[in-house]
Amino acid sequence: MDTRTLYNQWSATYDKVENKTRDLEGEAGQKILSSISFENVLELGCGTGKNTEWLSQKAKHLLAVDLSEEMMAKAKEKVSTPNVRFQQADITQPWSFTKEKFDLVTCSLILEHIEDLNFIFEQASSVLQSGGHFYICELHPYKQYSGSKARFETNEGLQVLECFMHHASDYFNAAMKNVLTCECLDEWFDKNDRSKPPRLISFLFRKK
Ligand SMILES: C[S@@+](CC[C@H](N)C(=O)[O-])C[C@H]1O[C@@H](n2cnc3c(N)ncnc32)[C@H](O)[C@@H]1O
């Protein structure tokens, strides 16, 4: 089954079941983004709105996009303030869903489903104002090397989504090609236990 169909299915339980990756990313995002100021935000892959709520309280305007209408329906139940607009879109296609410029683009736990990182960096760079930030937090490459993939249980059994491997250097090289410099690279560990491999990797890039 394709990514959209599977996320439509997962939407029923995404917020309810234990998910260390989801929860750790929520903490990481708030820590990193609390240190910068922003007004006009594009949230890629908003899902059920885990981060949309927090971002909507900090931003003047927020455009939240997602491929899955069912995931986004959950987000709409959480966030209904007039400064937030939701748009169903596939970010692997040219970003015709906006003509605006943003001072922050966020991307949490979505790039493992996208093969061509360069396309995403190219589009993100084109919608960012000069000086704007691009925040990314994804499953750490170490986790990917050991076989971790987005997955969820259904009555019919375990569903595993299509995932693509991204090495740390892939993010850096895509950023460099698209006039983005890295201001911050972090690794995030379960219970902050640095004796074990990290769960997540995050980047804060900035457009020159
Ligand atoms: C693991 S969820 C993460 C949701 C949210 N960002 C979070 O941190 O909880 C991944 C989300 O990316 C969306 N997604 C996957 N591929 C996409 C694409 N090509 N375009 C837009 N959204 C996509 C899925 O529909 C899903 O809602």
Overall description:
This protein has 208 residues and is an alpha/beta fold. It has a single domain (3-207), classed as Vaccinia Virus protein VP39 (Rossmann fold, 3-Layer(aba) Sandwich). It contains 7 helices and 9 strands, in the order ααβαβαββαβαββαββ. It has helices at 3-10, 20-33, 52-58, 69-78, 117-127, 141-145, 168-177, and strands at 40-44, 61-66, 84-88, 102-108, 128-139, 151-154, 157-160, 180-188, 200-207. The strands form 2 sheets. The protein has a 7-stranded mixed sheet with strand order 3-2-1-4-5-9-8, sandwiched between helices. The chain has a two-stranded antiparallel ribbon with strand order 6-7. It is globular. S-adenosylmethionine is lined by residues 3, 7, 22, 25, 45-47, 50-51, 66-68, 71, 90-92, 108-110, 113-114, 150.
